[in-house]
Request: fold
Amino acid sequence: MRYLTNFNTDFLDAIKYDVLIVGSGIAGLFTALNIDDSLKVCLISKDDLKTNNSYLAQGGIAVTFNIKDIQGHIDDTLKAGGFYNDLPAVRVLIEEGRKNVEKLIEYGVDFDKVDGEIAFTREGGHLERRIIHKKDYTGKEIIEKLIQVVKQRDNIHCYENTFLVDVLTENNSVNGAIILMNDKEQVLKTNHVVLATGGVGKLFLNSTNSSISTGDGIAVAYRAGAVVEDMEFIQFHPTPFHSDGEAFLISEAVRGEGGILRNASGEAFMGKYHSLEDLAPRDIVSRSIIKEQQLQGNKDIYLDVTHFEKGYFEKRFPSIFSYCISKNVDPRKEWIPINPSAHYLMGGIKTDLFGRTNIEGLYSCGESARTGVQGANRLASNSLSEGLVYGKRVSDIINHSKKFGIEKYSIKNKELNEETLEYKNDVIVLKTIMDESANILRTRAKLLSAKDKIQIIKDKYESMHSYEKMFLEFKNMITVSSLIIEMALKREESLGSHYLEKSDE
Reply:
C-alpha cells in the first residue's frame, strides 16, 4: 500500500512550513538550528522532545581534534565496519567533526575537562583516546542544551506527541506530509521533509533504545519510493545490565576506562576472541559473550570494575552507578551482570553526502539514514558525530534550495478497509520472531521461517485502516521487520553485525 491511512487532502486542515523535520534527537535538532532563520521550520516529535536515542547516549562523541589522528580515526571506523563503509562518507564525518562539535560548545554543551582542557576517553575499536563526554550522560547534556536553543528561535516551531503518518509525493517530489496532531489527521504542506527518526531497536523484545524506536521514518520513506539499504546490519550492544524486561545501557566507556568482562568462572575471556580483548569492536564482543553463554550453559556474564580506584566509578559514571545500586548491585564490590541487546541500525534510508534521497525534497540524517559511514558495524561513539555532521549538511542543502511554496493540490487515498482487528498480541509475536531470527547469531533456516511468519502478519493487517497511533506504528514495524529479514536473506555471507551460523535446513 502506498499510504498508511485513507484521506482526502481537500477535507483536512492544512498548515504550511518551508521545512518539516521529523525527530528531536541530535540530528533533527542540529538540522533545525542550522536552517536559515528566514525559513519557517516545523519540528515534530512522536513523544516529548527528550524521548529519543540521542538523549539516552552515555559514552560520548568520537571526534578528532588532533589533525594527525584523522587517518587513524578513519582506519578504526573502516575496520569496525568490516571495510564495507563508503570511504568518502567516512572522510566527511571525521574531517568535519571538530567544527560541528565546536558549534555544540557555542550552544552551551559542557563537556568534561581536565585542567581546563576537554577530556578524552577510549572505547571499543578505537586505538586512540578520542571520545569527548559529559560523565555518563553525554546525550542528556547535548539534547537539553539544544532544546533550549531551539526554543529561542522564532522560526522553529516544535510539536510534541505528533506522529508522521506519510510523506506526500507527486512526480517523485515531496509536496507535504500527513501527520497526527492531537490525535487529529492534518496536512502539512512543504517542499522539504527531513527524516531524523532514529532506529529500530523496539522491533526486539530487549533493546537499549527509547520507546519511539520502531523504524517509522524508514517505513514512510520506503512507501514513498525511497531506496532503503543494509537493513540486515543491526548492532547489539554487548553490555546492557542484565535484568528481565529491561536493557539499561552500561556504556562502552566503562571498558574504555578499564572494565573487564568475566564469565561465570571469573575468567577474563575476551583475550580468546580478539587482540583488543575487552575493547574489541562491538559485534565481536557481543558474539563472544553469546559463545561464552553457550559454553557454560547459562547467561551469567559480568562486567568487573571492582579494581577501579576508590571513588572513581561513581564519579565518572554516576548514572550507571545509581542504576546498579537501584538493582541491588554495588559495582565497587561485585560484578555487574550484563547481556547483549539490540542497540543501533547501520542501514536505513539511502542518502548521498548531503542527506538527499532519490526523492526530491526528502532527506534523512542520523540513525534512520544509510550514509555509508557506519559500514557493517558502527564504531563506538561515531553515531552522535554523524548526526551533527550530516544534519549540518542537510541544512546547507535546504538553505541553498530555491524551491519553496506549495501550489494547491488534491491527493486522496481510499485503498483501505475501515475495520481494525485487535493487534496488540501480534506486536509481541512480531518482536519474538525478530528476537529469535534476526538476533546476534543468525541462520538461514531461521530467517526463512521468519519471512513466512511475518508475511502472515502482514497479510492479516495489510488492508486495515485506523487513526490510532499505536496501530500505525505497528504497521510500520511490520514493514521494517520484513525489510530486515529480506536483506539478511540476500546477504549469504557473514559481514560485520550480520553473522550467519551454519544452518540446519
Remarks:
- The first strand starts at residue 7 and ends at 8.
